[in-house]
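User: Hello! I'm new to structural biology and keep hearing that structure can be predicted from sequence alone. Could you demonstrate with 4-diphosphocytidyl-2-C-methyl-D-erythritol kinase? Please show me the input and the output so I can see what each looks like.

Assistant: Of course. The first part below is the input, the amino acid sequence of 4-diphosphocytidyl-2-C-methyl-D-erythritol kinase. The second part is the output, the predicted structure written as tokens.
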Amino acid sequence: MDTAELTRLADCPAPAKLNLFLHVIGRRPDGYHLLQTAFRLLDWGDALSFELRHDGVVARVTDLPGVSAEHDLVVRAARLLQSYTGCRLGADIRVDKRLPMGGGLGGGSSDAATTLIALNRLWRTGVRGEELTALGLRLGADVPFFIFGRDAFAEGVGDELRPLDLPPAWYVVVAPPVTVPTVEIFAAGELTRDTEPIKIMDFAASTTRNDLQAVACSRYPEIGAAIDWLAQFAPARMTGSGACVFAQVASEDDAERIVASCPGSYRAWKARSVMQHPLRGWVG
């Protein structure tokens, strides 16, 4: 369909990410942490739909418990694109929220990236990929990765991205019954901030970890319990600042068996890696 005819974009994917490792290697004078991490995209996530409006209004038409529309990254992303481009169009935005909030899976950042990518297409604003990435960074450190749109080795605050070629894999993701505020974990006095940097070519052979995991587990013991349960089946660790934990498994069948055995106090999903973001072709 010619973009001039577009009035609606339905079921636009906003995939989850995993941090295969996350090292905190320093801190900038402005307080932002310097990181190294390996981002991996999954075939599971939220979905967003966008309906064109001609009155300039941006409206989230679904309720998200605990997140007001004014503070939602989706609405903020749409208004940022409006402001940056001078676009006078608006949109009704529907969010099908599948990812747990406060889970370290990048749900809010992924939703924001999908919003920028989709509305750039729907509104025909013509913003190129590098500009879109810079806009994304203004919304959050993980947003540029989702616009980058493929597995990546990330440095800086998470915005310096290089492609990472990884073999396909199946994962089990487990959500314990807690929500972890990212700011709390990064602000913790006991957080390790001087992990020795590694090189991208050494990633596969290096001993890695998630530096945020010990802090999160000490404050939210449910995360440690979830790691211990999942570690019965395969090496497990936390993603991002938590609360979700994950393990790579050998096959889809293995993933299904583990998910089926998950205790009722947790939620568990199987997920497969994907080579690239489903909307990557929309980023010019």
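User: So the tokens describe the shape?

Assistant: Right, they're a compact way of writing down the 3D structure. Reading them back into a model, for example: DSSP finds eight helices and ten strands in the chain.
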